[in-house]
Every structure is written in structure tokens, then in C-alpha cells.
Amino acid sequence: MKPYDYSLDAIKGISCILMIIAHIPLYFYGNERVFQIVAGVAPVLFFAVSGVTTTLQVKRRSFSSLLGFYVLFAVIGFAYNLMWRPDVQAFRIMDVPQIIALGVLSVYLLEKYLKPPLYLYLLLSLAVFAVHSFIGHRLPDFPLKSVVFTETVGFTYFPWLFAFLAGVFAYRASNRVNLILTLVAAALLGIVSYGGVSEADYVKYNMSMPYLLLSMTVLFGAFSLFRSIKSYAPASPLLYVGRHSLLFLFTHLFLILAFDRLGLGRLHIVLIWGLVLICTYVGIHILLWLNRFIAQYLEHLLPWGIIVIGVIAIPLVIPNRDLIILMEAALGMLFAMNYKQLSSLMSASASARREPALPEVVRERA
User: Fold this and answer.
1) CA-to-CA distance for 363 and 195, rounded, in angstroms?
2) Three-state SS for 160?
3) Alpha-helix residue ranges (DSSP H) falling in the chain
4) Which of 100, 5, 98 is nearest to 47 (CA)?
5) pLDDT band per the 50, 70, 90 thresholds, residue 214
6) pLDDT, tens digit, for every residue of 314-337?
7) Does 152 have pLDDT greater than 70?
8) How many CA atoms lie within 13 A of 50 on its CB side?
């Protein structure tokens, strides 16, 4: 058994903190917009770690079991989309859960059947951005174009697959290589930004060259920093939220929306950041404690089928937007706490041992 790699939990923990800064306030103006732009790279770290953990599943899981799980992951994940947009239009937009599903399956196939050398992961990540930048907008409309190529909102296959691929490279490369790439990306960002910065260059959905360079600076910098730390305190709050990052995703957004509804957005921005972070941390503890009494009922496919139907049906039959957000948040949190049970049910293995959706993270460097 190789030692558990806490660095990936730490990177996800930083991503969680950045999510709060990116999502508060809900309406941006003035200097707050600067914080939102920088913190908006949080998904890059989240996707990068997902790419890494995917490569560790190749020898443990069949593609068919992984495909079944991530199809349901994407569908149930629409609960998150519906918290942002509580109406049926949310089903037309790719958000974090859907791009994770596509990114994981893509990296799995790449690692399983092509086994590319280390440098090719970096080249492929840049090629994905090049396809987005030079080809995507020139293509005529076709079915599912809004899933494959960026339009105005949502995380689409091009360019966001780059983060999954770059994450694999960063994990397997040495800290020195990551540090060099951090400095190179930062220098190039400074060059392309010389003479002025346009806010349009930092709209993450329609990714520009400056946004790519900002993302790579943060990505390679995070891997260089956290992979260089020799030891971690397993009980630290940062690692705790990193281990429960999917639950954090749903919980922090629900609290932000609830506090905004209560008018707490008038508080000083730093106070509301701290309030949401503390409440999310405490809320995760409470939810996991309550889940001990619920988890046993999710070890069969029938309740998962009900959850899938519930996620889809709620915005179709309930007109009240606040109620849609509340119910979708509850289903999303339930899923985030118990996705390992669903993964076990979808596994093609006949082993009595239940396999988690994301295996133990170990240190594997090329």
C-alpha cells in the first residue's frame, strides 16, 4: 500500500475556498470583480485533481462501470445547475458535474488505451485550447454544439478538458518542472496583459489566452506548492473540506443563496466570505452526522432511481423557484454524501468489497 496523498486534498481544499470568493457576492462591481476573476479559476484545480484520480482508476475499474456511474453523476448533478437556474432551462447548460463526467471518461480512455507519455498530456491540453480558440467559433451550428464548444455560459468540452489533462501532467511532473511552468505562464500573462486589461479577457466560459495563462499559473503553482510539502496534518480543516469537496460544492452554494435571500449580502464582503466558509464547514459536519442514519437506504438502485427522477421532475412540476432550489439542494447534498455507494452499485466487479468512485490517492510520479 502506497501512502495516501494528502496534497490532492489540499489542492481541492484551496479550490473550495476560492469557490466562496468567486460566488460572493452574487452581483459583482468595483474591486470585488478583481477577486472574483482570480478566484474564478477554482474549477481549474477541481478538474485537474479529477484528471489525476481518474488515472488511478484505470486498473481498478472497467470503462462500462465507470460510464454508468458518470452518466448518473451528470444527471443527478443537474441539481447543482438548478440551484443556479431554478427552471427547465438549466438542463440545456453544462456545469461542473457534467464537465467532470466528460473529462473523467475522456482521461480514462486516453490513459487506458493510448498510454501517452508525460509531455503529451501537456501538449494535448494546449491543443484542446487551440481547438476552442481557432476552430470552435468558426463551425456552423450542429446538435450538441453547446456541449462541445463554448458559447456564452457553461463548462463545455472545449476548452475545459485542458484542465483535466494539465492536471495529470502536473501531478506526474517534478516540482521543479511545475515551478518553471508557473513562472513561464505568469511571465506570458504579464506580457499579454501589458498596456491594459480588458474584463472581457477574463470571462471564464469563453476562455481567452489571458484566462488560460492565469489558469495555468494557478494550476502549476498549486501543484508545485502542495506537492513540495513533506507532511500534512490529516485532521486539518483544509484537508477536511478537500476530502468532501463535492458536498462543499452543494452546501456552500445553498448557504450563499440563503444568505442572499435573507439580505445578508449587505454585510462587508470579508465578513460574508468568513460567514459562508465557517457555516459550510460546520454544515458539512452536521450533514455527515445525519447521513449515518440515511446511508443504509442508498445501497440499492431503487432509491437512486427515485433521486434521478426527483432531480428531473422537480422543476417540471413545482413553480416556486425557492422551493426548487431547496429541494434540489437536498438531493444534491444526499448524492454528494453517498456517491460511493452508487459507484459500488455500478461497478462491474463481483467482489464483495465496495470500491469507491474515486480510489485512494497515492503518490505516483513519472
Assistant:
1) 42
2) helix
3) 6-23, 32-39, 42-55, 63-76, 78-84, 96-109, 118-134, 145-148, 157-172, 175-192, 209-228, 237-243, 245-261, 269-291, 301-317, 321-346
4) 100
5) very high
6) 999 999 999 999 999 999 999 999
7) no
8) 27
